[in-house]
């Protein structure tokens, strides 16, 4: 990959699922992605909304 290419990812619809968010963030880190864009819906349905907000 060209050194000037920035690797980005989009995440959304976490809905308070901290376990899933942690797995996704681990995968993002393993892939060397250096910028994450939040498209929304981090909380609302799942049981761990506060923790999701803290991580983000």
In short, what is this structure?
This protein is α+β, with helices and mostly antiparallel strands and 56 residues long.
Report on the structure:
By secondary structure, this protein is an alpha+beta fold. Helices cover 36% and strands 14% of the residues. The protein has a two-stranded parallel sheet with strand order 1-2. Helix 1 links the parallel strand 1 (8-11) and strand 2 (35-38). 7% of the residues are buried. The model has no long low-confidence stretch (mean pLDDT 92).
The ordered string of helix (H) and strand (E) elements is EHEH
> Residue ranges: pLDDT <50 for 5 or more in a row?
none
β-strand percent reads 5-15%
**DSSP strand tally:** 2
Class from helix and strand fractions: alpha+beta
Roughly how many Å is the radius of gyration? 13 Å
Biggest sheet strand order reads 1-2
Query: In percent, how helical is the residue content?
Result: 25-40%
**How many H/I helices?**
2
Q: Assign an overall shape.
A: elongated
Task: Provide the fold topology.
Elements: E1 8-11, H1 18-30, E2 35-38, H2 49-55
Parallel strand pairs: 1-2
Keywords:
56 residues; alpha+beta; elongated
């Amino acid at each position: 990959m060209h050194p000037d290419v920035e690797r980005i990812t989009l995440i959304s619809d976490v809905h308070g699922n901290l376990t899933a968010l942690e797995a996704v963030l681990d995968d993002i880190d393993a892939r060397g992605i250096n910028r994450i864009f939040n498209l929304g819906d981090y909380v609302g349905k799942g049981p761990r909304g506060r923790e999701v907000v803290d991580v983000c």
